[in-house]
Amino acid sequence: MAPLVTEHRDGPRDECGVFGIYAPGHDVARVAYFALFALQHRGQESAGIASAPRGRDIMTIRDQGLVAQVFDEHKLRTLVGDLAIGHVRYSTTGSSDWENTQPIVRNDRRTLALAHNGNLINAVELHSELREDDVAFSSTSDSEIIAALLATHPASRVEDAVAEVLPRLRGAFSTVVMTEDTVVAFRDPYGLRPLVLGMLEDAETGQAAYCVASESCAFDLIGAKYLREVLPGEIVTLTEGGVKTRMVGGAERRAFCVFEYIYFARPDSKMAGTVLQVARARMGEILWREAPVSADLVIPVPDSGNPAARGLARAAGLPQDDGFIKNRYVARTFIQPGQELRRHGLRLKFNPLPEVVAGKRLIVVDDSIVRGNTTRQIVQMLRDAGAAEIHLRISAPPIKHPCHYGIDMSSREEMIAHGRTVSEIAEELGADSLHYLSLSGVYEAVGVSREEHCDACFSGDYPLAGTEDHRGKYALELPLLRA
Length: 483
Hints:
- Helices cover 27% and strands 24% of the residues.
- It is an alpha+beta fold.
- The protein has a 7-stranded antiparallel β-sheet. Strands 5-6-7-8-12-13 form a 6-stranded antiparallel β-sheet, with helices on one face. The chain has a 4-stranded parallel β-sheet with strand order 17-20-21-22, with helices on both faces.
- Helix 13 links the parallel strand 20 (361-366) and strand 21.
- The longest helix has 15 residues, at 276-290.
- Mean pLDDT is 90; it is low at 1-9 and 479-483.
């Protein structure tokens, strides 16, 4: 029997979060812990930190669970050193098993630890090449393929190995890797997944130390200053001497994931020069402009719908209230509720308020709909609570195509927008009306151009040729590959 699903969304799932730091004199493992705490939204399956005193052995602690479940004071004290990397995971290639937790450690020509956010679309081919060279694997994630390519490379410096390996990788990869004396961060030439550079300054000595993270919100928590994003195709090396950078190749276009703006990144992160809380409120304003409707009250589906609901309510001149109370202490549960309670499973996360919604014409705002199962339940719960009308407003276009670049989504056939018109979807969900934010509305809200972004989950326009030939999340677990 499957575990009770406690998240309200039925996809897409967050990908992963990475962090890296070189900071002699700092408690780097503790810094990494808090950075991962800020990045927890990017992955809740597992967490890990690797650290090393400069020039000495790498130590790693990784396990399944949330950051606060994996680490305690005693474990953090064992992770001493001057440099560290960290990872939070949601699986996009390979199962949610301990073997696939990160950072991955390899001990081949060189010893290294690696943490990766993204997805390789040529993972099977690279895996086969390495196995033909008698390279052994202990996991079924594409991240270990990158680690193995770097660990077995003959270059004397890891940054030179990265420069030669990077052009062989196809897909999304924002990656941090550490040896006993260096932290290297690199990003795929399309810039599909985020990666940013920051600086920590010692208040007493004024000495600077540098770090990288998936999002700027990690810097806010550890007191680091945001410097800039790591450029697509850029290699950033953190050493005792500071920061060194080099560019390796480039793509014909940038293709940053537009869904980062809509949902994946934390609302207090800054992307494209804009704090996402502000951009998401603009999405709500544009939703109202595109599809006004007679209503009494605006309510969000918490927490993903909160910023857009505020923007829509402000633009409409309508009151906003909480139509649901969210249980914020629900994380992942493996306790089965029993047959009588199972049909009320969503109430473990949300409880509607009849006193707020009864008799009201509601505008219900959320960020996306994928399969529609949960949205259908939410609409029914509001009906049962006495809502007079329910008008769904979604701050993303219809999702019709799976992502192959580090987001775990349903198959095309499972998506409610596949083969249906908007009015047919509204009928399927039981809503009085439904409007999705237009793709042009998304780009207007963020203030960026479509030419430098990937919106394949909406449009089917994949930036990398051959993407749709990708064999899926469990490609490396096929019996042929594991033999």
